[in-house]
Each structure stands twice: as structure tokens, then as C-alpha cells.
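Take a look at the protein record below and flag anything odd:
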Amino acid sequence: MELSADILVLQELVIKLLEKIDVLSSKVIILENELKNSNEKYALLEEKYVLSETKCSLLEAENLALKRQLGMNSENSHKPPSTDVFKVKKDVSLREKTDKKVGGQTGHKGHYLEMSENIDEVIVHFAESCSCCGKTFEGENNLGVVNTRQVFDMPSPKLVVTSHQITKHQCSCGHIELGKFPLEVKSKTQYGSNILTICNILTNECRVSLQKASQILSDIFGCSLNVSTIMTANEKLYENLASVEQEIKEAIIGSEVAHFDETGMRVEKKLYWFHVACTTLFTYLFVHEKRGLEAIKSNESILKDFSGTAVHDCWKSYFNFKNCKHALCNAHILRELNALIEQKSIWATKMKALLTEMYQKSEKGKGIVENPTYFLRMYDYICKIAEKEEPPPRKSKNGKLKSSKGRNLLNRLKEYQAEVIAFSQNQNIPFTNNEAERAIRHVKIKQKVSMCFRTFDGAKIYARIQSVIDTIKKHGLNVFQTLKNINLYQNFSFFQKG
């Protein structure tokens, strides 16, 4: 009986244990499901974490790029100086500092307004009354002139009307001959060469719009030249300058070194490009709807016919021309190096110091560098440092390899080493492309003043006239008198004697 009771107790315990096992099994199943859900959540969180890390890296890179963009100026990028409105400029000049004070130096002959012996008008100012007793002077007791001051001024501008008349003569043979009007006098009434030349200078050299030029002439001379008259004056000068422009092109093509550059401007509501080719004495400018190879190969371009050394800013299209040698503008390179130096780049600091030293050793770009082997070794050594310092290219969103700004610059310095240091091997090749920069800067000034060109013909006319004006100034000639003579159909050449 006792055994049976024990068996019953054990059976009850087994039943309870089985019930507990069922409960525990249920809990295990629940926990397994929770673990499975947790693992899935963990996998999702891990995936989100990876995505967040990737996004964070992209945002950091974008933030760095935006910071770099905000820090860009004319000293560390290709941005023009006009964008540095509120920036205090640092002294980044390549000139060595001296103990000389700013301004005119001792022994320098200054230029100032001197008293003239050629007097057009004399005005004598008499004393009217005595400041002591009040007596009025009536010409007596005049002791003569005691002091003289001169005022240099223009006569009051006014329009002068000249009447041209022709007569007829009867010869003894009975033939009647008429006199001839001057070649420039073609209409019943017209404006003369002086005022038309002023129109040319205002709308081209001074870069004002046609409407503003009309207003200026109306205010000063009281003549109401309408816009179409000013346009006609520019068109006439454009035609008269065809042979002069051809002379300029031939002179640049035949030169040993020429500078090339381009800049954009709105023409006919589209972006067109002004291309310049120039030397120290000649400037040629033309406008084209394209910036690259299509424009440089066009009939207007002269680079395809040039066989000297072309100095430019490393625009890829220029290197398609194998008929000439190439040299790069180191001012552009130094600006890019400055941007890297601001990011604590070691190799950029060394490369800038090397190029600056070569510039100084070459008599500031006017001579050649002695012992070039040393500088070439240093150049290669710095490029090897840059290879280790710059990060390798990485894939972008579109799958293409993208390099950093520093690596892009390094690749150019390695690929075009000979072109970068060309200035140090040839005294006729300058350190920078400033000649072309100066020659094309007026286009941006024109854009600021007049905003745009409404027609392509207007841009084309401006390019030719400005080419000649810039060349006239380089030759030290009087712009107004030279253009006036051309408007009067007088033959003109930059190579003519006298």
C-alpha cells in the first residue's frame, strides 16, 4: 500500500513536471521567436548603421567641399578678384620684401601740373575796396600783379556745324567740272568723325551701353544721337578695321611666344565665349558659341596656324594642337597650391616654395635657371611625397573614379612637368599668363557695365574694335586720333614708318 501511495505521488510529480516542461517549452518557443525577431531587428539596425555611416561620410565630404568652396577666392582658385568684395587680402606677392618705403623713391622724377607759358585767357582780379578804411578803389594806385594761379580746363563743349559746298567750273573746251566732297562726307546731313570716334570709344573702350552713350553725348554736347546712329558708327569702324585685324593676326602667328585665354559672356540670351590671343604688342579677340576644340579650330581662331610657344592655363583643348609648344600659367598653379596649403598640405607647401624659388632664380621670369637638374630632382621628389599624401581615387555615386583636388593637381603637375617649368628654360616665356588675363579682362568689365550683348553681330563688332584699341595702346599711340584717322579712311598700319 505504501508503495502504491509513493507511485501515485511520483505520478503527480511527473505530471506537474510535464506541465512545467510544457510551460517552459512554450516559453522557449516564445523566447526563440523573440530572439529571432531581435536578430532581425539587429540586422536591420546594423544595416541602418552602415547606411548612416555611409551617409555621414558623404555629408562630411560634402561639408568639407562646401567649406572649401566658401573659402575660395582669387588667391586659391580660378575665381576673379572682383568676387573678393568683403575679403581682407593677404600679401601673396612673389616680390621679395625690401627696406624701401611705399611710394616714390629718392631721386625719382615726379610728374605734376606745371605752370604753362602758353596762356589762352588772362583774368585780372582787382581789389575793390580797402579792408582797413573801406575806401573804394577806382583804378588808382595799382601796384601791379603780385601773384598768379593757373586753371587748366576744357572749353565749353558744343557741336560745330561745318557746311561743305561744291562749285562747278566751265573749261575753255566747254566741259563743266564739279568739285568733289571729301570721302567721309556722304550724306546731306551727318555727324563728323570726331563725335563718331567718341561713340566708338564710349561703347567699346569705356564699355558703356548704347543707350548710356547716347545720354552722355546729349548731356555734354546737346546732340541727340540715337542708338541706331551709334550702332552704324561701330559697324563702319568694324569694316574699316578688317585689314588692321588681319595684320594683328599675322603678327601674333609669327611671334615666338603668344598667350591664349577665354571667358564667357551672355550673347543673345545664351552663354558665348570670347577667345583671346595676344603678345606684348598685339591683341586679337574673337567670339564663338563654344569654349573648347570647336572654337579653337574655327576659322576665326589662329592657334591652328601658330607654331611658337602657346602660354595658357592648362585647358585640355589647347593640347590637341601639336604644331606648337605649350607652357602653363604658374599663377593658376600657385592659387591651387594655396588652397591645399590652407588644408595643411605638406607637399603643396614644398611645391609652392620650389616654384617660387625657380621664379626668383630666373630673374623673376626674365632669365633662365642655372643648374636645372637640381630643380628637376626636387620637383620629382615632391611629386613622390604628394603620391603618399593624397588619397587614392574612389568611386562616386555614378560608379566613376573621383579624385581629390590635390590629386587632380598632382596629376597635371606630373603629366605637364615640362610645360610647368618652361619659363625657367626660356627667357622669352613668362612665369604667368597675365598678358592674356589683362587682354581679356575688359570683357568682364563690359559685362558688369552693359550686362550682355543683345546680338552676335554686336559682340563680333566689339571683339574686333577692342582688339585694335588694345593693340593701339600697347604701341603707345593715341587711341582717339588713330581711330579718327581710320574713320576718315586714312591708311593705317602698325608697321608703317613715321
Q: What stands out?
A: The two ends are 151 Å apart (CA to CA). Residues 2-70 form the longest helix (69 residues). The CA atoms of residues 228 and 288 lie 24 Å apart. The mean pLDDT is 86.
